[in-house]
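Hi C.,

You asked whether I'd gotten around to modeling the 622-residue construct. I have! Everything is below, sequence then structure, no commentary in between.
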Amino acid sequence: MNETNIQTWECGAENASDVIATLEGTTLIISGEGEMYDECNAPWYKRSITSIVIKNGVTNIGSYVFRDCYGLTSVIIPSSVVNIGNYAFSNCSGLTSVIIPCNVTNIGDHAFDECNGLISILIPEHVTNIGDCAFMDCSELSSVIISNSVMRIGTNAFFRCRKLSSITIPNSVTTIGSGAFGECSSASSIIIGHNVTSLGNNVFEGCKPTSIINLNPAPQVIDIRSGGLFGKINTIGNIIIPTAPLYVNESVVNVYKRAPFWKLFKTIHPINDDSFALCKTTEQIDEEILLKQQEINNLKQEIEKFRQESEQKIEISKQEIKRLEFKKILLRGIAGNPKHVAQFMSLFNQRDGLKYLTHDFDESGEFDRKSFLEQIRKVCTENFEQLEIPQTLKELINQFAFEKEPKWMAFDNQYNPKEITSGWSAPEWEETKAGKLHPIRLSQFAEIIKDFKRTTRIESPNLDVLIKKVFADESFEIEKKDLSKADFYTHVGEFKSALETIFEEIQKRSDTPDKKKVSVEYKKRFSDEYAVREIIISHHNSFPTRDDENNLIKEWLSLEKGNMGKIAKHLQGYCYWSVVTKINDKPMKVNILREKDTPEQEEVDATVATGFTHILTFYHQS
């Protein structure tokens, strides 16, 4: 999906970020926790929206928020919603059906007015109030079922619903506002529940029923001067009394015959008369069937939501298991193998490896970030299990690629350290408006990728810059050779720390002028499988002062004591490390970090041992 087809807004009532609206094409998705705000000019106002999906967790549909969505044809409201605000769906003329969930208690004023496409509506259990004009001018509405929880039906609530075939007021209702069912000219029957005590003016104006049933034992007081229940004939106050018979409880027939307004009915029948069969018209039975069908639909919708939510939770749990298994691999204590590091880092040059973590996507089709990261995790997991990769390198890649709240150290182009709190799985990368573009095409993300590359690879002329940074003591003569040609992968942070410790040791041993010369050389050669890169650091005229050769070498090989132990800790797994020097005037090479079959020490020619020389051997594989 292109960038222009996805837009996101905050729309929470208490905290704006609690509820988020996302427009994907013509579908508006509302997600989060809590109430939506009331907003008559929401950002999506009059946009081309055909469907609205409100996710579970949203509790209130704000006033005005979806008004005038003319193209809206479907809306899904979750069971978490308890209130539908004023004008919430006003004038959504294309809306053909809506299922109001069972936990809604209030339907606001004008909530669905002028929804001309609505054919039927079920007011479910728990709704206590139907607001003023809530369904006014729903011109196609032919069936309304009001559950036995509603206590108030507002003024003009169903005014001009001219196709409404019957009107049934449940026993829970106590108040019906003026004009509530006015101009419902197709309603053939009216049933008024036994708790209705207040009937507003002109409640049924324009209705032409063939039967009227009033179950209240006490006739309601009707204001005849204002038009009664059915309106006026003329301007001098004559009111309309329908010709249809009035049915009331047998015990109160005479009461109704004496009551103001009600006594004007030509025929008043007891409710248990044979003609009471009219009380159960075919249409009313159809309404009861519809009620049960809508109950079934509600249950199906709840089941479907539960299924979707369960599937989402299962998927989240699966992803969490993968994350934990990956974390376990990261924590596995392995010293590392320089050749394995070379093999692993070569994946950054392979399309089916890790190339696109640091390079722009150059294949056909769109770049799918989510599936790409899943593939990257798979590649890393397989290689971390098969290869001996140092823990510090694994954790660096984990922070850059997979952590949602990453934190890792990088360097600027002068090798000054800087903390990075961003990476591929950080929210700002996930929420980018770049659509299917590789993040490297956006400057803020391209800089992060560049930081990562600088932290995992020495490229020309970086080694020269790094040596200048580390060996910055002007009292030394530094001789450099071919450093600008250096190119190899490593953990640059660990490499820099090792160089700093080497130079610290050199400074400690430079107590005379003849020990102020250091040379640093870069060499490369090739073996059958790997390109070999050597960094040779020589502190001229400097030799160990201790004469206990065996103990000294034993300390070096222990990888634990003093600066030599620190150097080993930083280099282990990334390169092999040897020193060439003289101990008791005996020239020798000590292989501190070495391959399995390499001896701990070797004799060398005296001409080679001109001081204390560190040889760092890295491997590179294309």
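If it helps when you're writing up: Confidence is low (pLDDT under 50) at residues 273-279.

Thanks,
B.
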